[in-house]
Design goal:
It is built from three helices and 14 strands. By secondary structure, the chain is α+β, with helices and mostly antiparallel strands. The protein has one domain: Alpha-ketoglutarate-dependent dioxygenase AlkB-like (Jelly Rolls). The structure holds 2-oxoglutaric acid (AKG) and fe (ii) ion. The site of fe (ii) ion has 3 residues, from loops. 2-oxoglutaric acid binds next to strand 7, strand 13 and strand 14. It comes from Mucilaginibacter aquatilis.
Amino acid sequence: MKLFNNNVQNLLPYDGEAIYHEGVLDPIEADKYFDIFLKEIAWVNDEAIMFGRRIITKRKVAWYGDADYKYSYSRIDRHALPWIDSLRMIKQQIEETCGKTFNSCLLNLYHNGSEGMSWHSDDEKELGNDPIIASLSLGVNRKFSFKHKQTKATVSLALNHGSVLLMQGSTQHYWLHSLPKSTKITGPRINLTFRNIIGG
Ligand SMILES: O=C(O)CCC(=O)C(=O)O
Ligand SMILES: [Fe+2]
């Protein structure tokens, strides 16, 4: 495991901080966690209400946390499951590496490039004013993009196997982010976003 302090560089030109750390997990460790999470996480298809209709996504999700937090987005209430050992271990490793603590984790499973995540900000009130989000990527490398809400400036990067992207400061106020779909991508990816739910 690498420490975070070397070569810290903000990818965003203004109005937020996004710091990318390659190789936080070495490939063998990252492979191990990918296999464990694929098997052990209680994956479910995500639901959202759009234009008054209930949509079921192909992407799978799961949400774990310290307590039975209620968290709402896309107009659906979700309840956190209690941590399992493998998640507790990786959470501790991420916390030590980035020097922050987290009380919940939202996981995403993208089976292939036909699944992605559209433009959004993680700005739900449960996350507090300037949320700190640590996003661990496992599996195939995928493109990730930011777009500024006013200037429309974009910043893109690859999120590689075993990397962590830290988003903090005013990022969620000013920037949207997305995981674009790509027909070229045939393999699966698991993403863990560690967050803090305030006053859950
Ligand atoms: O899969 C990713 O890297 C992005 C996930 C994301 O933005 C989210 O869960 O809010
Ligand atoms: Fe997000």
